[in-house]
Amino acid sequence: METGAAVALDVDGLAKTYTGHGRSVEAVRDLTFRIGKGELVCIVGPSGAGKTTLLRCIAGLLDGSGGRITLDGTAVTGPPPGMAVVFQEYGRSLFPWLTVRRNVELPLREKGLGRAERTAKVDAALAAVGLLENADAHPWQLSGGMQQRVAIARAVAYEPSVLLMDEPFAAVDAQTRADLEDLVRKLWQQLGVTVLFVTHDIDESVYLGQRVLVLSNRPTVILEDVRIDLPDERDQLQTRSSQQFADLRTRVYELVQLAKKGHRPS
Ligand SMILES: Nc1ncnc2c1ncn2[C@@H]1O[C@H](COP(=O)(O)OP(=O)(O)OP(=O)(O)O)[C@@H](O)[C@H]1O
């Protein structure tokens, strides 16, 4: 992150060992990184490197075995109020018996907002993801990509200070995925929210991020923090066909290959 920028998320020496049934798995050994307010940072790494473990710890859903996580200066000890999470499994994250509008509204009710304010925020979020006309539909009447847009609308309507995304587009088709990537960039630019985005897809991480954190294999540490100095205005065709994109993609790809072979930072 830029020196002097305010820190939104501070992960300091995070460790996590799973124990039980007479065995223990050291998933995360020592993860340390900071994300500045308003940054968009992607995380990639080999399968089983501990990406989901890390996100669950940040979301306050899982206790670490060591280290500290701080959000906006407050230690994370349970689900923090200023955080929203979008998961891969949109089918399970929306309530099928509630309309799109009610799904997006739910966290705003829990936040205690009045009716008029809730309606205004829900309308704005649905308009931002292009789903205002579907407000009265139920999730099961929508395509997978549309359902994921509802999940994104619900997260942004909440106005989180940090948005965590755990492989949110892994289950949608390639064309929808490209549209959703551009939607995330657009919302991020409009709202100034801090985004931490976990993906398996190296191209996606380079296209979306301002930085890409490459994780080592287990027990996990940061292998490298790659700055993505592509222009802010990104375009699926032009950006992805540029030499700069190809060079960054190659760099991240090589790092992930090294991580898979067990290479660790010196
Ligand atoms: N509840 C658990 N009990 C024991 N071990 C676990 C548990 N959850 C995860 N692990 C182990 O911790 C390690 C990291 O798992 P995690 O799901 O965080 O990795 P990941 O990077 O998200 O994987 P993938 O990329 O395949 O989704 C793996 O070795 C996994 O087997």
TrEMBL record:
Signal peptide: none annotated. InterPro entries: AAA+_ATPase, ABC_transporter-like_ATP-bd, ABC_transporter-like_CS, ABC_transporter_ATP-bind, P-loop_NTPase. SUPFAM superfamilies: P-loop containing nucleoside triphosphate hydrolases (SSF52540). The keyword ATP-binding applies. Keywords: ATP-binding, Nucleotide-binding, Transport. It comes from the Bacteria. Residues 9-242 form the ABC transporter domain. One of its GO terms (molecular function) is ATP hydrolysis activity. This is ABC transporter. It comes from Dactylosporangium sucinum.
